[in-house]
Design brief:
The protein has two domains: 1-41 and 138-207, no CATH class; 57-137. 50% of the residues lie in helices and 14% in strands. The protein is built from ten helices and three strands, in the order αβααααααβαβαα. The chain has helices at residues 2-9, 45-55, 58-65, 67-74, 78-92, 105-118, 121-133, 164-170, 186-189, 191-206; strands at 17-19, 146-157, 171-183. Strands 1-2-3 form a three-stranded parallel β-sheet. α4 packs antiparallel against α7. The chain starts with a helix and ends with a helix.
Length: 207
């Protein structure tokens, strides 16, 4: 969302924008995608997204309303912090419930330690509260909302899958690629795919 906001507000200074989870910039205050935008080729995508908000969004509600309270608990307990972070990697990645098929113990512990040693959980959770209580303000009324040239890599085990038809209206869409493997943490799950995708998207823009 931070990258998309740069592509919205400062499109004249952005060479290109590449994302793996296109989302309305006003999603924290009710912005949503029209289910009618899903094509026949995207069958099941809307249901996957709805299931995420139904079954996996407890963290979202908590961080939007009481981020500081849970921060005290997670910054006091390394076991609690580890459980909170690793559960997301197990549930949101393309690991089939076996988290170490996608992330090594070193990967997981490094992520936990970055949060633990810097006491960063509270600030990361606070973003949700601020986004929910300080609504996004458009910098302009034009369409597409994000005018910077945009590439999207869709990984089919991502937690939310948005329709291409919507993305073509919302972004200055230049590239749309769908990959069968990979989830919410695609750069760690499919690093070779991501490197190749970034190079292919930005190469013509460099010219």
């Amino acid at each position: 969302m931070l990258s998309a906001q740069l592509g919205h507000k400062f499109a004249d200074r952005i060479i290109g924008l590449h994302i793996t989870l296109p989302t309305p910039l006003d999603v924290f205050t009710g912005g949503a995608v029209d289910p009618a935008d899903y094509s026949a080729a995207e069958e099941g995508w809307a249901e996957r997204s709805q299931n995420f908000f139904r079954e996996e969004s407890g963290y979202f509600q908590l961080q939007c309303t009481r981020p500081q309270t849970v921060a005290y608990a997670l910054e006091d307990s390394p076991v609690g912090l580890c459980a909170w972070l690793v559960e997301k990697r197990r549930s949101w990645s393309d690991c089939g419930g076996k988290v170490e098929t996608r992330f090594s113990k070193d990967d997981l512990l490094t992520t936990v330690m970055i949060y633990w040693l810097t006491r960063s959980y509270g600030t990361s959770a606070r973003y949700y509260y601020e986004a929910a209580h300080r609504p996004w303000q458009p910098a302009h009324p034009r369409m597409p909302v994000v005018e910077a040239p945009t590439g999207v890599a869709v990984f089919l085990k991502e937690v939310v899958l948005q329709p291409q038809r919507w993305a073509e209206r919302y972004y200055n869409l230049k590239r749309w690629q769908v990959f069968p493997s990979g989830g919410h943490f695609a750069p760690m799950e499919e690093p070779d795919v991501m490197i190749r995708e970034l190079r292919e998207f930005f190469r013509p823009l460099r010219r």
